[in-house]
Amino acid sequence: MHPIIIFSKMDFSQSNLFGYIEDLQELTIIERPVRRSLKTPEEIERLTVDEELSDIERAVYLLSSGQDIQGTSVVANLPVLMRQNPADTLRRVLPKIREVLHIAGVEMQLTAAVSFLTVLQEESVSIHTYSHSFLHIILQNLEHRDAGVSNAWLETLLAVIEALPKETIRHEILNPLVSKAQLSQTLQSRLVSCKIMGKLANKFEAHIIKREILPLVKSLCQDVEYEVRTCMCRQLEHIAQGIGTELTKTVVLPELIELARDEGSSVRLAAFETLVNLLDMFDADDRSQTVLPLVKSFCEKSFKADESILVSLSFHLGKLCNGLYGIFTPEQHLRFLEFYKKLSTLGLQQENGHNDNQLQLQTLEQEKKYISVRKNCAYNFPAMIVFVDPKNFHLELYSIFFCLCHDPEVPVRYTMAISFYEVAKLLNSGVYAIHKELVTLLQDESLEVLDALVGHLPEILELMINGGENSGSESKLLSIPDLIPALTTAEQRAATSLKWRTHEKLLQKYACLPHIISSDQIYYRFLHRMLTIILTNNVLPVQKAAARTLCVYLRYNRKQEQRHEVIQKLIEQLGQGKSYWNRLRFLDTCEFIMELFSKSFFCKYFFLPVLELTHDPVANVRMKLCCLLPKVKSTLKIPTDKHLLQQLELCIRKLLCQEKDKDVLTIVKRTVLELDRMEISVDAEQLEKEKQQNEGRSANVNDKMFEKKRRDSKTSSVLTKSITLSVPGSSSGTSAGKEDKKSKLVRSQSFSTQALHPKYSNIDKCPNKSSATGYTSSVSGMGKSCMLSFSDDSFRSHSTGNSGNSAFPSSSSSRNLFNSADQKNNGNKESQSRKMSIKNRKSNS
C-alpha cells in the first residue's frame, strides 16, 4: 500500500509543477526555431570584416556591401567619425550614407536623423560646412512616406534653422517652401511647410514675413484638409510673435475667428487654445468686442453640441477668466463663475438611463472625460480664488473646494493636494477655513494624495497656525483640533505600505512639528514613535529620517526629565543594543546630534558611549566609528575637555595595537593622519584663568630670586648661573609632568612624517604593551612627535608670553626640554660609570 501512496503523491506533485505531458512536448518543440535562428557559417563569413581596415575604410565597406544592421551601426557612429576625422568622413562616408538613405528602412532613417542632429549639437564642423554637406540630405528626406521618419527629419531641420544664417535659410529653405506649400503638393509636404513657417517667423523681420510668409499662411489656413488647417492654426501663435501687435490684429485675429467657426472640431480646438495664448497681445476693445463673444459661444456649445472642447476649456478657464477680468460686467463675472462650478462637479450627478452595452461604453468614455475636466478645475482653483477675490472665498468657492477635496477620483484629489499650498497662501488670514480639508487629505486612502500634500506640509501648517483665527502660542493645538490624529494616521499608513520614499518624506517633514504643536504632545505622540521606527523599520533611509526628526524633537524639548529619558533610551537600546544594526544607527543619531546640538551637549552625554564602540565585536561598527572620529574630535575644547581627548587618544592607540581586521586597520591609519591635521578649538576663558594662575606663580619665583641676588651681590656671577639653572628646573618640573601626560597622546606623527617610509609597516600591529610603550618613547626621543591639541599652531597663537609657554610648551620648547633631560641623564650615567671604574681600580690595587 505504501509504494502506491508514494507514487500517487509524486504524480500529483509533478502535475502541479510541470503540467501535463502534452505541455512538456510543446516545450520541446520551441527549441527548433531557436536553432534555426542561429547564423550559418556562410552568414557569419559575410558579416566578418577585415580587422586591418581603418575606421573610415570599414565604414565605407559596410555601407557598400554590408547588411542593413551594419549600415545602421555606421550611421549611428557618424558623430564619432566626425570628431576623429572630419575631412575623410565628409569626403568618403557621407556620400555613401546619402546613397544608402534612398533605399534605407525606417530604423536607419531614424538613426540618421538623430546622428545628423548630434553632429550639429557637438559643432564638429562649422555651420557653413554643415549646411553645405548635411542640409541637402535633411531636406531630401523630409517628405518620407513614413510619418515617424518625416517628423524625425523635421525636428532635425527645425534645430538646424536656429543655427543657420539668414541668407542660407532664404535660399535653401524659404524659396523652396513656396512650392512645397501649394495645394497640389502632398498632405505630408503641406504639414511640414506649416511647421517650418512657424519656425521661420522668428528669423526674419516683420516686413519680410508680411511679404513672403503671410500669403502662404492664409492659403494654408484655408486648406481643404482639416489636418493642415489645424497644424497651421497652432503655428499662428509663433507667427504673431514674429510680426508684432498691429499685424496680429489685422491679419492673425481674423483668421482665428474664421477657424474658430470651422466645421472640424480639432480646428476649433486649436483656434480656441491659440486665442487664449495670444490674449495678452489684444487690447481691451479687441477683447470685449471680438474675443469675449467668441469665448461665450465656446462655453455655450461645450455642453450642447461640442463636448470635444470641454477638456481644453476647463484647462484654460483660469487663464481666460483672469485675462478678461477687466472687461467683465458683474453679470458676466457671475456667469463664468457658475460655469466653473458646473465643470467642477461634472459627472458626479448620476442620471437614470438604460444599461445597454453601447451606453455603458459611452458612459465609460464620458467618465474619463469628466474626470479630466474636474482635474483641470482643481488645477485652476488658485486662479479662480484670484478671480473671485480671497475675501469672497467662503461664500463663493468653499463648496467647490469641499467637493474637489472629497472627489471620488484620485487624480482630482491629487491635484488638489498639489495646489493646497497655493490656496493657503492666497487665503492668508482666512486660511483657517480650509483646516478640515487639510485633515481630510492627510487621512486620504491614496498614498499618492498624501505624498503630494506632504511636499509643502511645513509651510501649510505654519500658515494654519500663524494666520488662523485662533493664532497664538497658547492655543497652537486648538487651531486644528484633529491635526495630531490625522498626522499619526498618515504616518502609520505610510509605514504599513511598500512606498518607503513617501514614508521617508513624511518623517522628514514632521521635523517642523515643534513649531506647530506643544512639546508634551510631541513627546507622547511622536517622539517615542520615531524611536520605534529606528529600532524596527528595515529601510535605512526611513531609519535615518526618523533619527534626525527625533533629534529635532529632543532639541526643542525643554523638560530635563524627558530629555534624560530619551538620551538613556538612545544609549541603552541603540548604542548598547544587541543588534549591530542598532549600534550603527546609534552612530548615525550621534552624527545628527553633533549637527543640531552644541559641542558641550554631545561631549556631556554621547562622547564616551561613542568611544565604547571601539570594542564592538562587529567590524562594520568599528569601521563606521573610525570614519566618525574626526567629527567627534571637533567637538572638544582645550583645556576643558583634556580628559576626553586623552580617552580618544587611548582608544585610537588600542585600535592601532589590537585591531585584527585589515579593512578597519586601514581606515584607522587614515583616520589617524586626518586627526593629526585637525586643530582643536580653545576655550579662551578657561585658558585665561590658567594663565593668571601661572603668572602668579612666576611672580613669586621672581621675587625670591631678586631677594637672593640682593643678599649675595658679591658672588653675582656664580649665583646668576645657579639661578638660570634653577628656574628651568622648576618650570621643567611642571612641564615635565605635563609632558608625561602628553606622552600618552603621542602616537601618530610618524604616520604623517613617514607615511611612505618602509618602516611604516613596523607599527601596523603592537603585539604587547611593551612594544606600544617602546614606540611612544622612541617617537618622543626623536623629537618628531606631534603633541595632539597641545602643540597645535592654533593653540600656540593663543598662548603668548613666558607664562603661556611654561604652561603649554610648544613643540620646539618641548624638544629642548627633552634634549636637556636626555643630556642630564647621559651625564649622570657617565659620572656613575667613572666612579665605578675608580672604585674598581682602587680595589684591584
TrEMBL record:
Q: Name one GO cellular component term.
A: protein serine/threonine phosphatase complex
PANTHER family given in the database record: PROTEIN PHOSPHATASE 4 REGULATORY SUBUNIT 4 PPP4R4 (PTHR21467), SERINE_THREONINE-PROTEIN PHOSPHATASE 4 REGULATORY SUBUNIT 4 (PTHR21467:SF0)
Which ranges are annotated Low complexity under compositional bias?
801-821
Q: Where is the signal peptide?
A: none
Which intervals carry biased composition (Basic residues)?
836-845
Task: Tell me where it mainly resides.
Answer: cytoplasm
Location of the region described as Disordered in the Swiss-Prot/TrEMBL record: 687-753, 759-778, 790-845
State the HEAT repeat positions. 213-250, 252-290
Asked whether the keyword Repeat is assigned, the reply is yes
UniProt cross-references to PROSITE patterns, sorted A to Z: HEAT_REPEAT
Biased segments, Polar residues type: 715-735, 768-778
One MF annotation (Gene Ontology) recorded for this entry: protein phosphatase regulator activity
Assembly mode? Serine/threonine-protein phosphatase 4 (PP4) occurs in different assemblies of the catalytic and one or more regulatory subunits. Component of the PP4 complex PPP4C-PPP4R4.
What stretch or stretches form a coiled coil here? none
Q: Which UniProt keywords apply?
A: Coiled coil, Cytoplasm, Phosphoprotein, Repeat
Subcellular compartments: Cytoplasm
Task: State what protein this is by name.
Answer: Serine/threonine-protein phosphatase 4 regulatory subunit 4
Q: State the protein's purpose.
A: Putative regulatory subunit of serine/threonine-protein phosphatase 4.
Extent of Basic and acidic residues compositional bias: 704-714
